[in-house]
């Protein structure tokens, strides 16, 4: 699902909200999450999952074209760990739809 599809679905589900309002809200939430991760904060959304930053240490790599050694610098990468409810919904989708989203 893309951001525009998310906005369209939310607008359809809540017709009293304009598409523009939903778009602004979605953008603000995503910007806030991005800023928090960039500052090294951990984000936890109960029932959905958590976002955190993992650090890949510097390592010695190799240029595939020439074969000469190259230093690959340390890198920070975002990491998502799904919550229990999301894992169960993904693992057992038929049980989640039968019971209204709860397994």
UniProtKB/TrEMBL annotation:
<dbReference type="GO" id="GO:0006310">
    <property type="term" value="P:DNA recombination"/>
</dbReference>
<keyword id="KW-0804">Transcription</keyword>
<keyword id="KW-0805">Transcription regulation</keyword>
<protein>
    <recommendedName>
        <fullName>Integration host factor subunit beta</fullName>
    </recommendedName>
</protein>
<dbReference type="GO" id="GO:0003677">
    <property type="term" value="F:DNA binding"/>
</dbReference>
<dbReference type="GO" id="GO:0006355">
    <property type="term" value="P:regulation of DNA-templated transcription"/>
</dbReference>
<dbReference type="InterPro" id="IPR000119">
    <property type="entry name" value="Hist_DNA-bd"/>
</dbReference>
<dbReference type="GO" id="GO:0006417">
    <property type="term" value="P:regulation of translation"/>
</dbReference>
<keyword id="KW-0810">Translation regulation</keyword>
<dbReference type="GO" id="GO:0030527">
    <property type="term" value="F:structural constituent of chromatin"/>
</dbReference>
<keyword id="KW-0233">DNA recombination</keyword>
<dbReference type="GO" id="GO:0005829">
    <property type="term" value="C:cytosol"/>
</dbReference>
<keyword id="KW-0238">DNA-binding</keyword>
<comment type="subunit">
    <text>Heterodimer of an alpha and a beta chain.</text>
</comment>
<dbReference type="InterPro" id="IPR005685">
    <property type="entry name" value="IHF_beta"/>
</dbReference>
<comment type="function">
    <text>This protein is one of the two subunits of integration host factor, a specific DNA-binding protein that functions in genetic recombination as well as in transcriptional and translational control.</text>
</comment>
<dbReference type="InterPro" id="IPR010992">
    <property type="entry name" value="IHF-like_DNA-bd_dom_sf"/>
</dbReference>
<dbReference type="GO" id="GO:0005694">
    <property type="term" value="C:chromosome"/>
</dbReference>
<dbReference type="Pfam" id="PF00216">
    <property type="entry name" value="Bac_DNA_binding"/>
</dbReference>
<comment type="similarity">
    <text>Belongs to the bacterial histone-like protein family.</text>
</comment>
């Amino acid at each position: 699902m893309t951001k525009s599809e998310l906005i369209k679905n939310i607008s359809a589900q809540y017709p009293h909200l304009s598409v523009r309002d939903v778009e602004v809200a979605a953008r603000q939430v995503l910007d806030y999450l991005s800023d928090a991760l960039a500052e090294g904060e951990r984000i936890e959304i109960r029932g959905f999952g958590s976002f955190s930053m993992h650090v890949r240490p510097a390592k010695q790599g190799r240029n595939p074209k020439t074969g000469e050694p190259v230093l690959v610098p340390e890198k920070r990468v975002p990491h998502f760990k799904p919550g229990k409810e999301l894992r169960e919904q993904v693992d057992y989708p038929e049980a989640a739809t039968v019971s209204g989203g709860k397994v």
